[in-house]
Amino acid sequence: MRTGVWLVGARGSVATTSIVGALALRAGLAGPTGCVTELPELRGPALPAFTDLVFGGHDVVSTPLAKRAEALAAAGVLPGRLVAALPEELAAVEHELRPAPTAGTQADRAAAIVRDLSDFRHRHGLDRVVVVNVSATEPAARPHPAHADPAALHAALAGPDEVLPPSSLYAYAAVTAGCPYVDFTPSTGLRLPALGALAAERGLPYAGHDGKTGETLVKSVLAPMFAMRHLAVRSWSGVNLLGGGDGATLADPAANAAKVESKQRVLGETLGYEPQGGTRIEYVEELGDFKTAWDLVTFAGFLGTRMRMEFTWHGCDSALAAPLVLDLARLTAAAHAAGLAGPLADLAFFFKDPLGAPTHSLAEQWQRLREFTRRLHSGGGHADRG
Protein backbone atom coordinates (compact mmCIF):
# COMPACT_ATOMS: atom_id res chain seq x y z
CA MET A 1 0.00 0.00 0.00
CA ARG A 2 2.06 2.93 -1.29
CA THR A 3 1.29 5.83 1.03
CA GLY A 4 2.22 9.46 0.75
CA VAL A 5 3.00 11.35 3.96
CA TRP A 6 2.59 15.07 3.33
CA LEU A 7 4.07 17.09 6.19
CA VAL A 8 2.88 20.62 6.91
CA GLY A 9 6.00 22.19 8.40
CA ALA A 10 8.21 19.78 6.46
CA ARG A 11 11.52 21.50 7.23
CA GLY A 12 10.95 21.69 10.99
CA SER A 13 12.68 19.57 13.61
CA VAL A 14 9.90 17.01 14.06
CA ALA A 15 9.35 16.57 10.32
CA THR A 16 13.07 16.31 9.57
CA THR A 17 13.56 13.74 12.32
CA SER A 18 10.55 11.78 11.04
CA ILE A 19 11.92 11.77 7.48
CA VAL A 20 15.47 10.81 8.46
CA GLY A 21 14.12 8.12 10.79
CA ALA A 22 11.89 6.59 8.11
CA LEU A 23 14.71 6.63 5.56
CA ALA A 24 17.06 4.99 8.07
CA LEU A 25 14.49 2.29 8.88
CA ARG A 26 13.94 1.67 5.17
CA ALA A 27 17.69 1.28 4.63
CA GLY A 28 18.13 -1.01 7.64
CA LEU A 29 20.41 1.53 9.35
CA ALA A 30 18.33 1.87 12.52
CA GLY A 31 15.81 -0.03 14.59
CA PRO A 32 12.19 1.02 15.25
CA THR A 33 12.61 2.00 18.92
CA GLY A 34 9.80 4.42 19.77
CA CYS A 35 7.55 3.27 16.91
CA VAL A 36 4.48 1.93 18.68
CA THR A 37 3.18 0.24 15.51
CA GLU A 38 6.24 -2.03 15.51
CA LEU A 39 5.27 -3.63 18.83
CA PRO A 40 4.02 -7.23 18.41
CA GLU A 41 0.56 -6.24 19.68
CA LEU A 42 0.06 -3.71 16.86
CA ARG A 43 2.19 -4.89 13.96
CA GLY A 44 0.36 -6.48 11.05
CA PRO A 45 -0.56 -6.54 7.36
CA ALA A 46 -3.01 -3.62 7.36
CA LEU A 47 -0.29 -1.03 7.98
CA PRO A 48 1.83 0.30 5.11
CA ALA A 49 5.45 -0.74 5.45
CA PHE A 50 8.15 1.88 6.00
CA THR A 51 9.36 1.03 2.50
CA ASP A 52 5.92 2.08 1.18
CA LEU A 53 6.06 5.59 2.66
CA VAL A 54 6.81 8.49 0.29
CA PHE A 55 7.42 11.92 1.82
CA GLY A 56 6.56 15.41 0.63
CA GLY A 57 5.36 18.60 2.25
CA HIS A 58 5.02 22.35 2.56
CA ASP A 59 6.93 24.89 4.61
CA VAL A 60 7.26 28.65 4.82
CA VAL A 61 11.06 28.40 5.10
CA SER A 62 13.47 27.20 2.42
CA THR A 63 16.41 25.78 4.40
CA PRO A 64 17.46 22.59 2.56
CA LEU A 65 16.37 19.42 4.32
CA ALA A 66 19.93 18.08 4.41
CA LYS A 67 21.10 21.26 6.20
CA ARG A 68 18.29 20.91 8.77
CA ALA A 69 19.33 17.30 9.32
CA GLU A 70 22.97 18.30 9.76
CA ALA A 71 21.96 20.96 12.29
CA LEU A 72 19.90 18.43 14.26
CA ALA A 73 22.83 16.01 14.21
CA ALA A 74 25.13 18.73 15.56
CA ALA A 75 22.57 19.37 18.33
CA GLY A 76 22.53 15.71 19.33
CA VAL A 77 19.00 15.02 18.07
CA LEU A 78 19.99 12.78 15.15
CA PRO A 79 22.98 10.44 14.81
CA GLY A 80 25.41 12.12 12.43
CA ARG A 81 26.22 8.79 10.79
CA LEU A 82 22.63 8.48 9.54
CA VAL A 83 22.62 11.92 7.95
CA ALA A 84 25.96 11.15 6.28
CA ALA A 85 24.65 7.80 5.00
CA LEU A 86 21.48 9.15 3.37
CA PRO A 87 22.43 12.03 1.03
CA GLU A 88 20.65 10.66 -2.05
CA GLU A 89 17.52 9.73 -0.11
CA LEU A 90 17.33 13.18 1.50
CA ALA A 91 17.83 14.82 -1.90
CA ALA A 92 14.90 12.81 -3.27
CA VAL A 93 12.63 14.04 -0.46
CA GLU A 94 13.91 17.60 -0.95
CA HIS A 95 12.62 17.39 -4.51
CA GLU A 96 9.11 16.76 -3.12
CA LEU A 97 8.99 19.77 -0.77
CA ARG A 98 7.05 22.85 -1.84
CA PRO A 99 6.86 26.43 -0.55
CA ALA A 100 3.68 27.14 1.36
CA PRO A 101 1.29 29.09 -0.90
CA THR A 102 0.98 32.73 0.18
CA ALA A 103 -0.60 34.54 -2.78
CA GLY A 104 -4.26 35.32 -3.40
CA THR A 105 -7.34 34.57 -1.35
CA GLN A 106 -7.58 31.61 1.00
CA ALA A 107 -9.54 29.84 -1.75
CA ASP A 108 -6.58 30.41 -4.12
CA ARG A 109 -4.12 29.07 -1.54
CA ALA A 110 -6.28 26.04 -0.80
CA ALA A 111 -6.49 25.29 -4.52
CA ALA A 112 -2.69 25.48 -4.79
CA ILE A 113 -2.32 23.03 -1.88
CA VAL A 114 -4.83 20.67 -3.51
CA ARG A 115 -2.83 20.78 -6.76
CA ASP A 116 0.39 19.95 -4.91
CA LEU A 117 -1.27 17.02 -3.11
CA SER A 118 -2.88 15.69 -6.29
CA ASP A 119 0.33 16.03 -8.31
CA PHE A 120 2.28 14.25 -5.56
CA ARG A 121 -0.18 11.35 -5.47
CA HIS A 122 -0.28 10.91 -9.24
CA ARG A 123 3.46 11.38 -9.76
CA HIS A 124 4.28 8.51 -7.40
CA GLY A 125 1.27 6.30 -8.08
CA LEU A 126 0.20 6.46 -4.43
CA ASP A 127 -2.84 4.67 -3.06
CA ARG A 128 -3.48 7.60 -0.73
CA VAL A 129 -1.81 10.61 0.88
CA VAL A 130 -2.04 11.35 4.61
CA VAL A 131 -1.56 15.02 5.48
CA VAL A 132 0.14 15.50 8.88
CA ASN A 133 0.39 18.91 10.50
CA VAL A 134 3.66 19.29 12.44
CA SER A 135 3.93 23.07 12.03
CA ALA A 136 4.20 25.71 14.74
CA THR A 137 1.42 26.02 17.32
CA GLU A 138 -1.20 28.64 16.46
CA PRO A 139 -3.27 30.83 18.78
CA ALA A 140 -6.85 29.64 19.22
CA ALA A 141 -8.98 30.47 16.17
CA ARG A 142 -11.32 33.44 16.29
CA PRO A 143 -14.94 32.39 15.77
CA HIS A 144 -16.42 33.10 12.33
CA PRO A 145 -19.96 32.39 11.12
CA ALA A 146 -18.59 30.36 8.19
CA HIS A 147 -16.95 27.87 10.56
CA ALA A 148 -20.30 26.19 11.12
CA ASP A 149 -21.48 25.54 7.56
CA PRO A 150 -19.59 24.03 4.59
CA ALA A 151 -21.44 26.07 1.96
CA ALA A 152 -20.81 29.32 3.83
CA LEU A 153 -17.17 28.34 4.27
CA HIS A 154 -16.66 27.73 0.54
CA ALA A 155 -18.09 31.16 -0.22
CA ALA A 156 -16.18 32.99 2.51
CA LEU A 157 -12.80 31.60 1.46
CA ALA A 158 -13.13 33.34 -1.89
CA GLY A 159 -13.38 36.71 -0.16
CA PRO A 160 -10.63 39.00 1.15
CA ASP A 161 -10.85 37.91 4.82
CA GLU A 162 -8.65 35.34 6.57
CA VAL A 163 -11.51 33.02 7.49
CA LEU A 164 -9.44 30.00 8.53
CA PRO A 165 -6.23 29.73 10.54
CA PRO A 166 -3.40 28.04 8.60
CA SER A 167 -3.92 24.59 10.16
CA SER A 168 -7.59 24.65 9.20
CA LEU A 169 -6.84 25.86 5.68
CA TYR A 170 -4.56 22.84 5.26
CA ALA A 171 -7.27 20.60 6.72
CA TYR A 172 -9.77 22.07 4.26
CA ALA A 173 -7.37 21.49 1.35
CA ALA A 174 -6.61 17.94 2.52
CA VAL A 175 -10.30 17.05 2.67
CA THR A 176 -10.91 18.68 -0.72
CA ALA A 177 -8.09 16.58 -2.18
CA GLY A 178 -9.50 13.38 -0.61
CA CYS A 179 -6.69 13.03 1.93
CA PRO A 180 -6.97 11.91 5.57
CA TYR A 181 -5.63 14.52 8.00
CA VAL A 182 -3.68 14.25 11.26
CA ASP A 183 -3.02 17.23 13.53
CA PHE A 184 0.01 16.61 15.75
CA THR A 185 -0.29 20.16 17.12
CA PRO A 186 -2.84 21.84 19.43
CA SER A 187 -3.90 24.13 16.56
CA THR A 188 -7.51 24.26 15.37
CA GLY A 189 -7.08 22.01 12.33
CA LEU A 190 -10.18 19.99 11.51
CA ARG A 191 -12.07 20.76 14.73
CA LEU A 192 -14.38 23.29 13.08
CA PRO A 193 -17.91 21.94 12.46
CA ALA A 194 -17.85 22.85 8.76
CA LEU A 195 -14.63 20.88 8.23
CA GLY A 196 -15.91 17.90 10.17
CA ALA A 197 -19.02 17.89 7.97
CA LEU A 198 -16.86 18.04 4.83
CA ALA A 199 -14.73 15.12 6.02
CA ALA A 200 -17.87 13.07 6.72
CA GLU A 201 -19.25 13.97 3.29
CA ARG A 202 -16.02 12.79 1.63
CA GLY A 203 -15.72 9.67 3.81
CA LEU A 204 -12.35 10.66 5.26
CA PRO A 205 -10.84 9.76 8.65
CA TYR A 206 -8.89 12.28 10.71
CA ALA A 207 -7.02 12.32 14.02
CA GLY A 208 -5.64 14.77 16.59
CA HIS A 209 -4.75 16.86 18.52
CA ASP A 210 -1.37 17.65 20.04
CA GLY A 211 1.05 14.74 20.23
CA LYS A 212 1.55 13.35 23.73
CA THR A 213 5.30 13.00 24.16
CA GLY A 214 6.46 14.16 27.60
CA GLU A 215 4.96 15.65 30.73
CA THR A 216 1.35 14.99 29.68
CA LEU A 217 2.27 11.39 28.87
CA VAL A 218 3.38 10.97 32.49
CA LYS A 219 0.21 12.71 33.74
CA SER A 220 -1.96 10.29 31.78
CA VAL A 221 -0.37 7.44 33.75
CA LEU A 222 -0.22 9.06 37.19
CA ALA A 223 -3.63 10.78 37.27
CA PRO A 224 -5.56 7.47 36.87
CA MET A 225 -3.40 6.01 39.66
CA PHE A 226 -4.53 8.71 42.09
CA ALA A 227 -8.15 8.31 40.97
CA MET A 228 -8.15 4.50 41.28
CA ARG A 229 -6.55 4.64 44.73
CA HIS A 230 -9.13 7.24 45.84
CA LEU A 231 -6.40 9.70 46.80
CA ALA A 232 -7.37 13.38 46.74
CA VAL A 233 -5.08 15.46 44.54
CA ARG A 234 -4.96 18.92 46.11
CA SER A 235 -2.65 20.60 43.63
CA TRP A 236 -0.69 19.77 40.49
CA SER A 237 1.72 22.38 39.17
CA GLY A 238 4.16 22.03 36.31
CA VAL A 239 6.92 24.10 34.74
CA ASN A 240 8.04 23.32 31.19
CA LEU A 241 11.31 24.71 29.89
CA LEU A 242 12.08 24.29 26.21
CA GLY A 243 14.17 25.78 23.45
CA GLY A 244 14.16 25.32 19.67
CA GLY A 245 11.55 26.55 17.25
CA ASP A 246 8.68 25.21 19.35
CA GLY A 247 9.89 27.12 22.39
CA ALA A 248 10.27 30.31 20.38
CA THR A 249 6.73 29.93 19.03
CA LEU A 250 5.32 29.36 22.51
CA ALA A 251 6.93 32.56 23.73
CA ASP A 252 3.92 34.19 22.07
CA PRO A 253 1.23 34.45 24.79
CA ALA A 254 -1.66 33.42 22.50
CA ALA A 255 0.13 30.29 21.23
CA ASN A 256 1.27 29.54 24.78
CA ALA A 257 -2.32 29.71 26.06
CA ALA A 258 -3.51 27.27 23.36
CA LYS A 259 -0.77 24.79 24.32
CA VAL A 260 -1.44 25.06 28.06
CA GLU A 261 -5.16 24.45 27.56
CA SER A 262 -4.38 21.26 25.64
CA LYS A 263 -1.98 20.04 28.35
CA GLN A 264 -4.38 20.68 31.24
CA ARG A 265 -7.39 18.67 30.04
CA VAL A 266 -6.05 15.32 31.20
CA LEU A 267 -6.28 16.17 34.91
CA GLY A 268 -9.85 17.47 35.09
CA GLU A 269 -11.24 14.74 32.86
CA THR A 270 -9.38 11.93 34.64
CA LEU A 271 -9.79 13.03 38.27
CA GLY A 272 -13.30 14.41 37.83
CA TYR A 273 -12.27 17.74 39.37
CA GLU A 274 -9.68 20.46 38.85
CA PRO A 275 -6.88 20.51 41.44
CA GLN A 276 -5.16 23.78 42.27
CA GLY A 277 -2.16 24.80 40.21
CA GLY A 278 -1.47 24.96 36.51
CA THR A 279 1.16 24.52 33.83
CA ARG A 280 3.69 27.17 32.84
CA ILE A 281 5.73 27.03 29.64
CA GLU A 282 8.92 29.07 29.31
CA TYR A 283 11.29 29.49 26.38
CA VAL A 284 14.95 28.87 27.24
CA GLU A 285 16.92 29.21 24.02
CA GLU A 286 20.01 27.46 25.39
CA LEU A 287 18.09 24.16 25.72
CA GLY A 288 17.84 23.88 21.92
CA ASP A 289 15.74 20.90 20.83
CA PHE A 290 15.53 19.46 24.34
CA LYS A 291 12.97 20.17 27.05
CA THR A 292 12.66 19.75 30.80
CA ALA A 293 9.42 19.51 32.78
CA TRP A 294 9.20 19.59 36.57
CA ASP A 295 5.94 18.75 38.34
CA LEU A 296 4.88 18.99 41.97
CA VAL A 297 1.81 17.06 43.11
CA THR A 298 0.30 17.41 46.57
CA PHE A 299 -2.35 14.93 47.65
CA ALA A 300 -4.22 13.70 50.71
CA GLY A 301 -4.70 10.13 51.84
CA PHE A 302 -6.61 8.35 54.61
CA LEU A 303 -7.70 10.67 57.45
CA GLY A 304 -6.51 13.64 55.45
CA THR A 305 -2.80 12.87 55.76
CA ARG A 306 -0.99 15.24 53.40
CA MET A 307 1.66 13.93 51.02
CA ARG A 308 3.52 15.00 47.88
CA MET A 309 5.43 13.71 44.92
CA GLU A 310 7.68 15.34 42.34
CA PHE A 311 8.95 14.21 38.97
CA THR A 312 11.27 15.60 36.32
CA TRP A 313 11.11 14.73 32.63
CA HIS A 314 14.04 15.64 30.40
CA GLY A 315 13.80 14.62 26.78
CA CYS A 316 14.29 15.46 23.14
CA ASP A 317 10.90 16.42 21.76
CA SER A 318 11.73 15.66 18.12
CA ALA A 319 13.07 12.20 18.93
CA LEU A 320 9.96 11.46 21.00
CA ALA A 321 7.51 12.88 18.45
CA ALA A 322 8.96 11.58 15.17
CA PRO A 323 8.15 7.87 15.61
CA LEU A 324 4.61 8.79 16.65
CA VAL A 325 4.21 10.83 13.44
CA LEU A 326 5.16 7.71 11.48
CA ASP A 327 2.78 5.58 13.57
CA LEU A 328 -0.11 7.97 12.99
CA ALA A 329 0.52 8.18 9.25
CA ARG A 330 0.50 4.37 9.00
CA LEU A 331 -2.59 3.91 11.20
CA THR A 332 -4.58 6.67 9.51
CA ALA A 333 -3.70 5.29 6.08
CA ALA A 334 -4.91 1.85 7.19
CA ALA A 335 -8.13 3.36 8.57
CA HIS A 336 -8.76 5.09 5.25
CA ALA A 337 -8.07 1.87 3.36
CA ALA A 338 -10.60 0.11 5.60
CA GLY A 339 -13.30 2.65 4.71
CA LEU A 340 -13.38 4.36 8.11
CA ALA A 341 -14.41 8.01 8.30
CA GLY A 342 -14.68 10.76 10.89
CA PRO A 343 -12.58 11.31 14.03
CA LEU A 344 -10.43 8.32 14.95
CA ALA A 345 -11.11 8.27 18.70
CA ASP A 346 -9.18 5.00 19.07
CA LEU A 347 -5.94 6.88 18.32
CA ALA A 348 -6.31 8.90 21.55
CA PHE A 349 -3.23 7.07 22.89
CA PHE A 350 -1.09 9.47 20.85
CA PHE A 351 -2.67 12.81 21.82
CA LYS A 352 -2.95 15.26 24.71
CA ASP A 353 -6.33 16.56 23.56
CA PRO A 354 -7.78 13.62 21.61
CA LEU A 355 -10.86 13.92 19.44
CA GLY A 356 -13.91 12.07 20.75
CA ALA A 357 -11.94 10.07 23.31
CA PRO A 358 -13.88 8.70 26.31
CA THR A 359 -10.79 8.54 28.53
CA HIS A 360 -7.39 10.14 29.13
CA SER A 361 -6.02 7.06 30.92
CA LEU A 362 -3.03 5.81 28.95
CA ALA A 363 -3.73 2.18 29.93
CA GLU A 364 -7.33 2.37 28.69
CA GLN A 365 -6.26 4.20 25.54
CA TRP A 366 -3.70 1.46 24.91
CA GLN A 367 -6.39 -1.23 25.11
CA ARG A 368 -8.58 0.69 22.65
CA LEU A 369 -5.62 1.08 20.28
CA ARG A 370 -4.87 -2.65 20.43
CA GLU A 371 -8.48 -3.51 19.63
CA PHE A 372 -8.54 -0.96 16.81
CA THR A 373 -5.44 -2.42 15.13
CA ARG A 374 -6.75 -5.96 15.64
CA ARG A 375 -9.88 -4.99 13.69
CA LEU A 376 -7.79 -3.39 10.94
CA HIS A 377 -5.59 -6.46 10.57
CA SER A 378 -8.56 -8.80 10.53
CA GLY A 379 -10.22 -6.85 7.72
CA GLY A 380 -12.61 -4.78 9.83
CA GLY A 381 -14.25 -1.90 8.00
CA HIS A 382 -14.95 -1.69 4.29
CA ALA A 383 -12.87 -2.75 1.33
CA ASP A 384 -9.83 -0.73 0.30
CA ARG A 385 -10.96 2.05 -2.00
CA GLY A 386 -7.49 2.60 -3.45
TrEMBL record:
<dbReference type="InterPro" id="IPR013021">
    <property type="entry name" value="Myo-inos-1-P_Synthase_GAPDH"/>
</dbReference>
<dbReference type="GO" id="GO:0006021">
    <property type="term" value="P:inositol biosynthetic process"/>
</dbReference>
<dbReference type="InterPro" id="IPR036291">
    <property type="entry name" value="NAD(P)-bd_dom_sf"/>
</dbReference>
<dbReference type="Pfam" id="PF07994">
    <property type="entry name" value="NAD_binding_5"/>
</dbReference>
<protein>
    <submittedName>
        <fullName>Myo-inositol-1-phosphate synthase</fullName>
    </submittedName>
</protein>
<dbReference type="GO" id="GO:0008654">
    <property type="term" value="P:phospholipid biosynthetic process"/>
</dbReference>
<dbReference type="Pfam" id="PF01658">
    <property type="entry name" value="Inos-1-P_synth"/>
</dbReference>
<comment type="similarity">
    <text>Belongs to the myo-inositol 1-phosphate synthase family.</text>
</comment>
<dbReference type="InterPro" id="IPR002587">
    <property type="entry name" value="Myo-inos-1-P_Synthase"/>
</dbReference>
<dbReference type="GO" id="GO:0004512">
    <property type="term" value="F:inositol-3-phosphate synthase activity"/>
</dbReference>
<feature type="domain" description="Myo-inositol-1-phosphate synthase GAPDH-like">
    <location>
        <begin position="214"/>
        <end position="318"/>
    </location>
</feature>
